[in-house]
Amino acid sequence: MPFSTLRLQYAPRICTVTINRLDRQNSINAQLLEDLHQVLDQLEADPDCRLLILEGQGGVFCTGMDFTEVAGDTSNGADAEKAETFMRLLRRMSLSRKIIIAKIDGKVTAGGVGLVAASDFAVATPRSQFSLSEALWGLLPACVVPYLIRRIGFQPAYWMTLSTLPFSPEEALNYHLVNEISTDPDEVIRRLLLRLGRLDEAIIFDLKAYFRKMWIVTEQMEQTAIAEITRLVTDPRVRNNIQEFVNYQRFPWSPR
Amino acid sequence: MPFSTLRLQYAPRICTVTINRLDRQNSINAQLLEDLHQVLDQLEADPDCRLLILEGQGGVFCTGMDFTEVAGDTSNGADAEKAETFMRLLRRMSLSRKIIIAKIDGKVTAGGVGLVAASDFAVATPRSQFSLSEALWGLLPACVVPYLIRRIGFQPAYWMTLSTLPFSPEEALNYHLVNEISTDPDEVIRRLLLRLGRLDEAIIFDLKAYFRKMWIVTEQMEQTAIAEITRLVTDPRVRNNIQEFVNYQRFPWSPR
Amino acid sequence: MPFSTLRLQYAPRICTVTINRLDRQNSINAQLLEDLHQVLDQLEADPDCRLLILEGQGGVFCTGMDFTEVAGDTSNGADAEKAETFMRLLRRMSLSRKIIIAKIDGKVTAGGVGLVAASDFAVATPRSQFSLSEALWGLLPACVVPYLIRRIGFQPAYWMTLSTLPFSPEEALNYHLVNEISTDPDEVIRRLLLRLGRLDEAIIFDLKAYFRKMWIVTEQMEQTAIAEITRLVTDPRVRNNIQEFVNYQRFPWSPR
Questions:
Q1: Which residues in chain C come in under a pLDDT of 70?
Q2: CA-to-CA dists, residue C15 to B219, C19, C58, C137, angstroms
Q3: d(CA C106, CA C109)
Q4: From the candidates B55, B66, B69, B120, which is the catalytic residue?
Q5: Within an 8 Å CB–CB cutoff, is residue B154 touching chain A?
Q6: Cα-based distances in Å from C75 to A127, C17, C33, C233
């Protein structure tokens, strides 16, 4: 079954999911969220798949929610549903019986940082760049924050969000947002497979469930995240910021 | 309105608060706490102030509570009130709609480390030095700890407190207690303003409130901190340690 | 009183506990757990002991639970009791009125990593190596995890457990699992004593109790850990993995 927003490649024991929306900067729309959930359903049932690689293309990993779609949404329900579906995607990645590896070659912003944070391992090429620029638009990376704090600690997550500044791969490595920088990420992945291929799926499942009990991310925290992003994205001022950008390429901080 | 313990300077979009108690090593007394709360009241109501810079002078950022004042306090109520006012200061810094930057050039000890930990960003000159030496006196940096753990993680905060050893700026950077070391901190701040000046105050406020919900510092934890420091500082043995030092410059670990 | 699994050496203000089971790779059996609790009882009552050094010998610090003993256990009760005794050991180390230093020269795996994580300070020689290989056996370092997350943060603890890969001393330092790498750990310890010897035992006790209130490790989390390791170690598949290894040196991932 082909997906309109993803490409799927199989190699022995390695499945690669490529986000295929380069015309929209690999941003996240409702269809991509649905396709990601479906591809996870499919791959989690495939015993040959040991490592699940998530990647972008054309110098873009993922740039977060699709502003064009947000600008066109006419009901608050659509925003809340997308937030809930995205939050659920991050949770299931963090609880999956597959080992999920973010393979980053290029731009990672907003919700894309969430996909990295919820992965088990992240490898980035030297040309990669990371940023959370939501605050410039009056938004927050609300669903990303719990998983980002879990991965890099409170203060780096906080400053990345408040500063809106881009992070280099070296900074991302320093904060442990990525595990390794490499010009040959496939080689890194092949090396990992040698060890990780020995793990039984049952213990991967047990391990992830266990670590969730040993940390502070809760269902309630995720509900708080969904409520907060929905509140912000339906705020008239924020909506205006997004529409001005989508329709006229005007930034909120540009002189009027 | 002038403050007896602070100086206030205005530049376009940048307000600088300078702790002005160099005769007491920029230590924190009841008056400084009151003045810091008042200056925050004033600056938070000032729409032109985008960055709030907190600094010391004369090679001292801040050296924590004023032992001379503590030695002279005759009622436990004064100690409890100061602890509560200091704890409230750290909380409001962490929730302020202004971006607060600690600009450090020199010595930072005890409660001064708390001011750094509760700031949004910290830049330090190479001659800066950090330490929590409370334990040598039979005390704990009780109000500092929640914000220090939040900023640098459990173990570094724990070891800094237990070891009482000084940290170099390089170590402080390694632990992310400071974000940057620079011989020209004003240049670092000017650079930050280019990006941070674009943020609407409303989203800064929302962001800080949101991150508080995503972390473990609670009102109850702050009450535990206030109770613990009050208990310790009113302990006869600790009080004797402080009085011996204030009156005779004798350290608790000196041979008697 | 001599211990069958430990050696005890006294120097002024420094007590050294050496794990003495090199014939079993310094692994942890029921007797070692009992002896460690007894030696802690003894040293905590000794006012001359300021620093308590925990070390291994012969290039092995500690390699976690003794699989030979586990393979021979015939009742689930023995496993549960050992898990509870080990968990209680880590907790009391983290709450002890003595400063506990892990002095590492060589191999540290599984439960041995827990001893390091629960220590106040860890120094390692360059030939040291760290790993959590439990998952390869269908197990988890369940009792280690709460103290490892506390020490090195969620993601490094998570990845160390999931990857099962060895960590070099440099990586361990980068993650703050060890505080220092040195070819002369005794010199590091002597230097620490100069400062730490000034601390009153009462404040060490207060400090550790206070930090426990400022972090997420709870009694309930420890009970979850004990239940999880007991569940796994009594699972027939895991028990078979262990018995195949003990009896025939067959690894779970070897071709049959």
A1: 1, 76, 256
A2: 41, 13, 19, 36
A3: 10
A4: B66
A5: no
A6: 56, 31, 18, 11
B153 contacts C153? CB cut-off 8 A = yes
Asked if the structure places residue A220 within a domain, the reply is: no
Residue contact B252–C152, C-beta within 8 A = no
Distance CA A130, CA A136 (A): 15
A235 touches chain B (CB under 8 A): no
Q: Is C256 on the interface with B (CB under 8 A)?
A: no
CA distances from C145 to B114, B244, B249, C149 (A): 29, 44, 45, 6
pLDDT reading at A139 higher than 80: yes
CA distance to A121, A246, B194, B200, per residue, from A166 (Å): 21, 22, 14, 19
> Of B55, B79, B84, B134, which one is the catalytic site residue?
B134
Work out the mean pLDDT of chain B and round it to a whole number: 96
User: Which of C138, C155, C216 is closest, CB to CB, to A203?
Assistant: C138
Per-residue b or e along B92-119, where b marks 16 or more CB atoms closer than 10 Å to that residue's CB? bbbebbbbbbbbbbbbbbbbbbbbbbbb
Looking up tokens 């900074």 gives A171
CA distance B241 to B235: 10
Residues of A (32-91) whose Cβ lies below 8 Å from B? none
Do C149 and A203 count as a contact with CB atoms less than 8 A apart?
no
Torsion of CA A212, A216, A222, A225, to 10 degrees: -150
Distance from CA of B207 to the nearest CA of A (A): 7
B139 CB neighbours in chain C (<8 A) are: 203
Q: Which residue bears the tokens 């709460």? A: C146
* Residue C207 touches chain B, beta carbons under 8 Å: yes
- The domain in which residue B13 lies consists of 6-183
Q: Which three-class secondary structure state does DSSP give residue B140?
A: coil
Task: Judge: A154–B211 Cβ closer than 8 Å, yes or no.
Answer: yes
Into how many domains does chain C fold?
Answer: 1
Nearest CA to C65 among C113, C102, C17, C100? C113
Residue C158 lies in a domain: yes
Residues 6+ apart with CB under 8 A from B199: A135, A136, A162, A164, B99
Per-residue model confidence as pLDDT tens digits over C181-231: 999 999 999 999 999 999 999 999 999 999 999 999 999 999 999 999 999
The minimal CB distance from C221 to the residues A196, A204, A214 is found for A214
pLDDT at B242 over 80: yes
pLDDT value, residue A253: 87
Model pTM? 0.97
- C-alpha separations of C38 from B202, C47, C95, C190 in Å: 58, 16, 16, 26
Domain presence at residue B161: yes
Q: Tell me the nearest-neighbour CA distance from B100 into chain A, angstroms.
A: 11
Question: Which letter does DSSP use for residue C254 in this model?
Answer: S
Tell which residue, B71, B54, B36, has the closest CA to residue B246: B71
Domain CATH code at residue A84: 3.90.226.10
Q: Is C208 contained in some domain?
A: no
- Shortest alpha-carbon distance between residue A148 and chain B (Å): 10
Smallest CA–CA distance, residue A102 to chain C, in Å, is 14
What gap in Å lies between CA A8 and CA A35, rounded to an integer?
A: 11
Describe the crossing of helices C30-44 and C76-95 by its angle, rounded to 10 degrees. Answer: 30
- DSSP line for A195-246: HHTTS-HHHHHHHHHHHHHTSS--HHHHHHHHHHHHHHHTSHHHHHHHHHHH
Instruction: List, in order, residues 6 or more apart from C97 with CB less than 8 Å away.
Output: C44, C201, C202, C204, C205, C208
Q: Which chains touch C (3 or more CB pairs under 8 A)?
A: A, B
